């Protein structure tokens, strides 16, 4: 019962957050300097052209009416139309979200396969040179900016002729090989940072558990290291690792703007970036709202899963001290 | 050091050496070449080059117009280029930027206000219908009846009449020298008027012209696919089977695509790209001259109060070192210009302008009188070279006691600050398309006609009169004298200050493409000679 109530409270809070976020997104998009009409028509446009464009884009309606029109559309699955292309934003999302989701999925798979074992290894060998190397590599991975790494990768790949082309994406339905080929480099660049973050957090989480009394007791009982890891460390270290992985998934699904831009991937990030530059309101507010939904839902799911894994969290209201 | 750590350091060193080693041979002075392969051309397609392949062109951004794909509403050079692949105009411009025949095979001028065009008899729209004189007259009339940015450039048209099976006569209210050049740009495209009027074709979403290519697919901001217009006279001789235009925002990615062969041809905004590609064996990078030019806006209406004083504005103008801008931001590949673009016939000579004396001491004295100045200088991020120009200017103006705060903002913010009412800037940088006739761009110095400049400049009756004289004076010595005067007056008033021409940097993969590229361009159309390209 307590778990159900706790879960309901979390879901309720998430819904309220979403409503507030939708207002903030709508307002902030319109508070940005410059608007679509000025941008697309350019400074040389006539007043008649300007008036016609304003009327056609619905920007002459009261702002409150525009908000509720958009909100109603969101609730009914109609995200509006791009000012520029006049294409349905819902249709564009349907085409682009799978691309971003695939990048996120592959990045997370690589991150989990490499980052968690690396973190465990670094925790278990924290005193030796391997631990030092792990710390340095992890610090480098976290601190190298994505744009820099992406730029170096683009230069290196095009210069060294590694058989991977840059910027020639094709939809999966058109050319599956080119689709996955185009994702190799973006996933690699994204995975570097994600692996470093997960490895560092895994290492810290594991090291925190390793010094707890019940682990010391298990060592004293003569249990094998592998048994101790499986039965005493893994589950206890899972909550913080899960939290960071959840956050990474949310960030990646929201759109990886820089990587999509550099590698010319038509995902959510590049779509949002272009729309933002053009003040294409329908796209910007829906894409940001989607990112917020993903983040809130991912956080909610992480909390629920962490609770299931670690009952102590329920006693402390969700945070473990 | 432990073995593992040593191995790590060694691997890192090898990686760094491998990367830097590849670039080690690049000359730090590598600039895009402007060397001509033939008079007027940077490259001429080799007929012996294997053709018939897919041609992949990468550009930095897509067309985005409120009027969709309607060429008459096209307001930017990118739209002119893309839509110009499917549409043709009555006239065109050649490699010397002279007006040349296109859909009009010839014309006569019985008087200085009458133009009688003889039309091509083999022009066919991509839907298979031959072009008629009614299409020509209807297209021009549509442009007059539904004013767009380009309507004003066509001049004072009194009437457009069909005067024969393949003949159209345009009568002007008064002489207008740039008329033929204005007809040469995409917004003056000839449209299939019968289908448009019957509602059969919506040209805001579909391009149906007499041009050599037909757009078969378009994903906004991603990709265009064009196929040959089988009705075009050059269809059989095209040197490629399809044209794909990829929109690739990142300059380094476009350079990489040229290097690895995934793109045949690419627009490279920065002259630094030539250096990046200096060691790429199969890539050629050239600098195409343009009539487009960068200019400085000095807000004399709502900017710093001191900028209302013409002497202060002229002091700022005369402190700017165009040579330094040319060297530092363009690697010496451009030239100073006045209001009329340098290089066009009858244009004024930048070196003869009053500000060219570059009298820093006099300029400093003027600024000292107002107790020094602190001004903001707004540039937008889409055009990185603007920031480089701004930095040079910041140093120039510091010498006369003007402290400049450079603000780099996205274009939407820039547009709001510079073109919004009231304009909220002191100084701002931008560029104008220079077109193919020197009189055309002078229009923007008349704020009443231009509209956009009315929020930050006063203009003057004297200047407006000279602009009108420039329109009506026949090309030659008299017109050159008008422009010399016009440039000098605009220079002294210093509200919009021309700086340097804006060249294009273009690259192609020599293994997969043999293009034709003119040395000069007036309408930003680097694919003007697309029908001669040969892609393997």
Description:
The complex is a heterodimer of chains A (321) and B (536). Chain A has 321 residues and is mainly α. Chain A has 14 helices and no strands. Chain A has helices at residues 2-31, 36-41, 47-57, 63-75, 89-124, 129-143, 146-160, 176-210, 213-220, 225-253, 257-262, 268-278, 281-309, 312-315. Chain A is globular and about 85 Å long. Chain B is α+β, with helices and mostly antiparallel strands and 536 residues long. Chain B has 16 helices and 23 strands.
How helical, in percent, are the residues of chain A?
over 70%
Secondary structure tally, helices of chain A:
14
Report the oligomer: heterodimer
The residue ranges of chain A in which pLDDT falls below 50 over 5 or more consecutive positions are: none
Q: Helix proportion of residues of chain B, in percent?
A: 25-40%
Total DSSP E strands of chain B: 23
What's the main sheet of chain B like? Answer: 8 strands, mixed
The N- and C-terminal alpha carbons of chain A lie at a distance of 24 Å
- β-strand percent of chain B reads 15-25%
Largest interface: A-B, 56 and 57 residues
Q: Measured on Cα atoms, how large is the radius of gyration of chain B? A: 25 Å
Sequence of secondary-structure elements of chain A: HHHHHHHHHHHHHH
Global shape of chain B: globular
> How would you sum up the global shape of chain A?
globular
Structural class of chain A: mainly alpha
Total helical segments of chain B: 16
Question: What order do the strands of the largest sheet of chain B run in, or round the barrel if closed?
Answer: 9-10-11-2-12-19-13-22
